[in-house]
Structures are given as C-alpha cells and as structure tokens.
# Entry
Amino acid sequence: MSAAARTATTTTLSVIVPMYNEEEALPALVDRLRPVLDGTGVPYEVVAVDDGSTDRTAELLEKFRTDWPELRIVRLRGNSGHQAALRAGLHRSIGAYVASLDADLQDPPEKIPEMLDLARTEQLDIVYGVRSDRSTDTGFKRHTAGAYYWLMRRLVGKQVPAQAGDFRLLSREAVEALKSLPDQQQVYRLLVPWLGFPSGEVTYRRGERVAGETKYPLSKMIRLAVDGITNFSAAPLRLATWLGVVSFLACLVMIGVTLVIFAAGHTVPGWTSLFVAMLFLGGVQLICVGLLGEYIGRIYTAVQRRPTYFVGYDSAAPTTPNPPPPDQP
Ligand code: UDP
Ligand code: MG
# Structure
C-alpha cells in the first residue's frame, strides 16, 4: 500500500523506533525488522523517531525510505531523550496497535507478531516484552536494574512487571490514555502498568547491541530512575521527618549520657562529638533541601507546560489526510 493511502482506519500496526546516533545499527535493524513486519500480512507503519541525531542516521533513514514506503521518519529538532522520543512516536502513530522497539536490536523484532497475536486473541491492551535473561548486560546494569524494579514495584504496585523495559505492544485505547496524561517527565515503563489495562507478557532473551555504543550513560540512567521515583511517590520528602526524629532521639540520649558523666565528677570532652554532630546535621539538612528542590523543580516544569520535544520533520505529514492533532497541550 502506498504511503498516501495509509490512514488510521487501515493501519493495523505501528512500530515506534526511537533512535539517537544509530547509523551503525540501522542497516541491521532494517534487514531484520522489514521481513518480520512484511510477514505479518497486516498494513503497518514503522515510525522511526530520529532524536536529533548528529551522525548519518537521518541520511540513512531517507535512503531506506525510498524503497520501503512503510517507513515513516519523524525527526525531532534536538536530542530530547529516549522517553520524549517515545512520546513523539506515540502521538504521531496511527495504528490500531502500537509497538515500541529499541534501534540496537537488543529486543528481537521477531516477537512483535507474537505480541500482536496475543493481544488480538486474548483481547489485551498491553503486551509486555519481559526479559528472561540479562546475561548480556553488565553486572552493574543487572544489579542496578534489579534494585530499580524492586523499588518501582513497591511504589507503583505489583502490576509493574519485573524486567520489562520499553519493548511492548499497546492497543489504541491504551495509547490514547497515555496521550491524555499531562505529565512532563513521562516514564513509560511505569505509566503503562499504572494504567491498569488488561495485559499479558511475551518473554524473550535480551541480546547484545548489534553495533555502536550505548546511548544511555550513567547520568541518563540516574535521571530516569529519579523521574520514576518522584513521579510516583512523595516518600523521599518524608525522609526529612524521619531523619529529624532520629536526630532528636539521639540528642536525648546524648543529654542523658552527658548528665551521668557530669554527675560522676568529670567534664565532658566535647570537640570531636560536637564537630561530628554539626557535620551530620548539616549534611542531613542539605540532603533534605535538595529533595525539596527536586520536587519544586518538577512543580515549576509542570507549571511552565513547555513541550518536551519539537518535531522538525514528519515524512508522512504532507500526505496524511487528517493531520494528527497538536502533540502537546
Ligand atoms: N535513545 C534515544 N535518545 C537518547 C538516548 C537513546 O532515542 O537520548 C534510543 C537509542 O537510540 C536506542 C534506545 O533509545 O534505540 C535505547 O538506548 P540504548 O540502547 O543506548 O540503551 P541501553 O540498551 O544501553 O540501555
Ligand atoms: Mg540498547
């Protein structure tokens, strides 16, 4: 089907692929993804969201599009981050079902037809890709990811599947529900389970990145974790109260000890303990102010209501009969 003839009513499947400087992985991705999607026999679109790449990603995408009409290119004006790229893809996609996939082939595209079948036969709105094996990740990543999912299950609820990243399939209803959320720093792997739609799982083995380097340095991982926690819980703010209570109790004990020593006729040697107590309280206070700042920063961003990305180019925009509504509130 030509790109011009594709409409929301005829496209069954959209596959969103966020990519940032993936020129090395792109040829392998196209080689593996296209036969799988052609083999499903359903009308589909691939929404390649170019997250402000500075390498040859944009050029390669244009080249691949010349003989793959189902490939749609959405280019963001700057590097806006993985979650913002996913958001752009969700807002622009038109399929009745929408899958998301990393560009580095760590998630196998071959599982997408399985996800689609499961969603259709069991009437599910969400099908998670769940990793059965993380042996290809570094020990550090495995441990930090384990701790992260444990914490998230406690904060968001048991419906957060352990070991599910951003490889999943959503129904149109679930996508529309996500689009209606006004959150600024969206963390989809938590928001999707939070929706509470009927869901299923497909397990897969997480492979190695086919080419190139990870685009998720530690700083971006920490950002994602902090976004997740602060989006779903005000518990860190209560830390200040608890630390205050503990310090107060410790202070009462110290008063008792000091009085006993004094009654025994000794003077209390004080410099070290005084200094330690001062540093401890100073540290605790700064941490608490920092936590407050983190939440106030979020309130500030929410009030500003600035878009998290800008679309510079959408290869489907000129031919789409009904242009998609504005992506952002
Ligand atoms: N990505 C993106 N924008 C970013 C960082 C990453 O669109 O700012 C994409 C990246 O191209 C890849 C996916 O997000 O398709 C996951 O990133 P990556 O594979 O580097 O993360 P890792 O698997 O190492 O956690
Ligand atoms: Mg990866």
